[in-house]
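Each letter names a residue; structure tokens follow underneath. Both lines appear below:
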Amino acid sequence: MLRRRLTGVAAGCALACAIPAAGPTVRPTAGPMAGLATGPAPAFADDVRGGQQPVIRTLDLKAAWRVSRGAGVTVAVLDSGVDPRHRDLAGSVTVGEDFTEGANPPGVAPRRLHGTYMASLIAGHGHGPGGRRGVIGVAPRAGVLSVRVILEDEEPGFKEFNTAERFEDVVARGIRYAVDRGADVINMSISKELATREERAAIRYAISKGVVLVAAAGNDGDRAAAASGFAPYSYPAAFPGVVSVGATDRRLRRAGFSNWNSSVVVAAPGVDIMGAGPGDAYWVGRGTSQATALVSGVAALIRAKYPRMAPPLVVQALTASATDSPPGGYDTATGFGVVNAARALAEAGRLARHTETAAGGEAQDPSQPFGGGHAGPIRVVRRDGTRATIHLWAAGASGAGAVASLGFIFVLVRRVRRAPEPQDA
């Protein structure tokens, strides 16, 4: 029996909230979690964009956008589907393959909440005059390729999807599909407990084609046994060569739910993150899903500025430039620290000055499909004509067996309902 149970949608309670067309506060209208609502927010003209300001500051996006906005880059969002008509994403989304087809009864439309949310954090361009309203993503000029590889737990085909053997390798198939259709970055805000050989091979294939892979570390941190010293590994994040992302709280410390283990590479904000939902809606939530989408956006900024930069060098730019680095430079909670887009672009520029070409090399020995941490060599030709080989590693990546517990890596706190916006003059 396959188990891909989706683990975090709405945390059992989606809390409706109202944001007035003008005014500084966000208040829940009802529900047992009303006391968890945010307090007074800054009085921005657009409260959605205002709610994004902590993330914009933490990632230093205004400085980064002077260098790159992601133009020309495609980010594949392997998720539950993206609403291409949301006003903050319109014109930026290509709807790709639905690998869950047949799980839902005929005529049932996908919800696409989680996927739209993640896509908006990566490539939302806002709306209205100058795009100043709504959600602005990290790479607002990037394109999104939506690849549906999971169902949300409210969908009627959820049980079928999680038990039918024909859906076992949808993630692997989705990765290969995205690579073959020109994705530069693949965002995987999804998680499961165990890995398959097909997924590992798909990861190797993507890296060999120069694609940057980013995935969520997992939301089991609160449930991890204190004696173990770490939270369980999550796949695809724990595969060698994948950028495993943890979530931080408002103080830029590991969020309590965020998994900690030696697969974690970097971290990003993951608490009270504003994003878009289907039908021009907006949501606020928490999770390593959101942190992952933010990191994918930074990777997109780098690939837009340096399109030939190989995955290991993109990862080097992310890690070497991270802020709030732990004592000693690394720990299992936040990896090498919190991603900073402006610093990452500067580091990528430094690396680019020393490297003319960098291309994916041969895949790992297929006789070692799991563990070991080796994702295959990358051949680099420096500007001085010398050659080097970089080996991309990820510590602690191990496991084998059937697919298990594929899930969203986020907790949705509340939906934000906005009053009609005033007409522009």
Remarks:
- The first helix runs from residue 47 to 51.
- The chain is about 25% helix and 25% strand.
- The longest strand covers residues 374-382.
- The chain has a mean pLDDT of 79.
